[in-house]
Amino acid sequence: MLAPGNRVGEPVFPGTGQLRSGAHYNYTNLGHRFVAAVEPSFLSAAEMVDQRKAVFGLIKHKDVIIFIAGFGAIVWAASHYNWWFNPPHRRPNPFADLSVRKLELPLEVIIADAARGLVIAVQRFDLPEHFSRMLFEAVASQVFSEFDSMRHLELAAEALPSGTDRMSLMKRAVCACSFGMTLPVCEEP
Questions:
Q1: pLDDT tens digits for 152-174?
Q2: Block means of pLDDT (10 residues each) for the chain, length 189 residues?
Q3: What is the model's pLDDT at position 3?
Q4: How far is residue 118's CA from residue 150's CA, in Å, rounded to a whole number?
Q5: What is the spatial distance between Cα 127 and Cα 124, in angstroms, rounded to a whole number?
Q6: Are the C-beta atoms of residues 134 and 175 closer than 8 Å to each other?
Q7: What is the SS3 string spanning the chain?
Q8: What is the CA 135 to chain-centroid distance, rounded?
Q9: Burial level of 125, CB count in 10 A (0-12/13-18/19+)?
Q10: What is the tens place of the pLDDT at every residue in 24-44?
């Protein structure tokens, strides 16, 4: 589990000195976090996050939710999610989140140095209402589905075949948001 309030220079996961390169998205009752663990050669991704140059997308494949993110032209990552991944005391209530009047999802994005397991950039993005609603509705549908971890992994692999490029991921996204130096833009492809 991610420690709340990660800061630059601290470990992403206390007690862990190294991370496998890749992405991790989680939605718990503590909030929403996306971690991209990158190799040192991609550390300029931190600058892209600091400058708020990011793209987020959402792919729904059967009962699997895939959260995709890109930072400039450097890092592009996908992470699959299921409500059942969280221990019972950490499972969020997507129905309560859907009933909130202003539905802008605050997402904490962490870029980490995979070799050392340390946070190199942290940024908070408020994802637009349309994106947030689609994500919460997809998670709400998972609550009522039976969970089979092996089936979930098969579906995730089917949705994200190795070698999938950025453009094909974006074409499959049901919603995408881009952040520049100004306000987010969210669109339905």
A1: 999 988 888 777 776 777 777 77
A2: 69 87 83 82 59 77 85 72 91 88 80 88 82 88 89 89 74 73 43
A3: 46
A4: 31
A5: 9
A6: yes
A7: CCCCCCCCCCECCCCCCCCCCEEEEEEECCEEEEEEEECHHHCCHHHHHHCCCEEEEEEEECCEEEEEEEECCCEEEEEEECHHHCCHHHCCCHHHHHCCCCCCEEEEEEEEECCCCEEEEEEEEEECHHHHHHHHHHHHHHHCCCCCHHHHHHHHHHHCCCCCCHHHHHHHCCEEEEECCCCCEEECC
A8: 11
A9: buried
A10: 888 888 888 888 887 766 656
Q: Which residue is listed with tokens 């009933």?
A: 99
Q: How many angstroms separate the Cα of 101 from the Cα of each of 98, 105, 117? A: 8, 12, 37
Token digits for 3? 């420690």
Query: Taking the CB of residue 181, how many other CB atoms lie within 10 A of it?
Result: 7
Cα-based angle 54, 137, 169 (whole degrees, multiple of 5):
40
The residue type at 127 = L
Q: Which two tokens stand for residue 102?
A: 């202003």
In the chain, the amino acid numbered 81 is: Y
Q: What are phi and psi of 186, to 5 degrees?
A: -125, 135
